[in-house]
Automatic annotation (TrEMBL):
The UniProt record lists the keyword Hydrolase: yes
Protein name: TatD DNase family protein
Class in the EC hierarchy, top level: hydrolase
The keyword Disulfide bond appears for this protein: no
Enzyme Commission number(s): 3.1.21.-
Pfam families to which the protein is assigned, alphabetical: TatD_DNase
Length: 259
């Protein structure tokens, strides 16, 4: 089984002491590709270094995360944009709107998000979308740019039935499912029964959101298998079938990993 993790911050400082070992363990477990979303200008060098060290195993995205958007967004966005032509990316990401911590820069977040959506259209790349307490705003931005022109994934999807239906109406978008689906208090398991596994891709969001029984610890690449097991249970499939289907979903969306 060859499993793809569609969203991991494996370049993060949390993994500095044992990153090579964790990658070796991931490969041994059957993980053969990991997609890396960027955060902002401070994460670029670390992400590029990891990509250069493990070409063909990790694949970069490029984007500006909404929680890194402030009054200096124009300069930060310009720096991110300047890197779009220097190498290949599997997506524009991680982008979106986050109003969980602070609503001060909502307008700036919307401007930045829509600009990066336009990059995706121009470059014919999917987008990896972060949305927290901002689903209506994210949806409006997608429609403003043109949902028929866009494709991508709603990373770390934890929405309700109405939000899932709205994603499904976009046609060219999938949902990224991580360890949250294993949490006892999560309603995600019931929500997912409204859709098909053809709309799902797997992710860790490492080092965040580890699945049960590792909740409270640093999320590691190999923990994605617990998420795969839970998805298999929800849809009445074997883990092998689940990995194959979600892999095909990923390859369909993120075309660079087929090269």
């Amino acid at each position: 089984m060859n499993l793809i993790d569609t969203h991991s911050h494996l370049y993060a400082e949390e993994f500095d002491e044992n990153r090579d070992l964790l990658i070796h363990e991931a490969i041994e477990s059957g993980i053969d590709k990991i997609l890396l979303p960027n955060i902002d200008s401070t994460s670029i060098d670390r992400m590029f270094s990891l990509c250069d060290a493990y070409t063909g195993f990790v694949f970069p995205m490029m984007g500006l995360h909404p929680t890194s958007v402030d009054c200096n967004y124009e300069k930060e966005l310009e720096q991110i944009q300047s890197l779009l032509e220097i190498r290949e990316y599997c997506a524009i990401g991680e982008i979106g709107i986050d109003l969980y911590w602070d609503k001060t820069y909502l307008k700036e977040q919307e401007i930045v998000f829509e600009e990066q959506l336009r990059w995706a259209v121009k470059m014919n790349l999917p987008v990896a979308i972060h949305t927290r307490e901002a689903f209506p705003e994210v949806l409006q931005c997608i429609h403003n740019v043109g949902n028929d022109k866009l494709s991508g994934v709603f990373h770390s999807f934890t929405g309700n039935e109405k939000e899932l239906d709205a994603v499904l109406e976009l046609n060219n978008f999938k949902i990224g499912i991580n360890g949250v689906v294993t949490y006892k208090n999560s309603t995600l398991r019931e929500v997912l029964k409204r859709t098909s596994i053809d709309k799902i891709v797997l992710e860790t969001d490492a080092p965040y959101l580890p699945p049960v029984p590792y909740r409270g610890k640093t999320n590691l690449p190999i923990y994605i298998w617990k998420t795969a097991e839970k998805i298999a249970e929800i849809f009445g499939l074997s883990v092998k079938e689940t990995v194959e289907i979600t892999r095909n979903n990923t390859l369909e969306l993120f075309k660079i990993v087929n090269k």
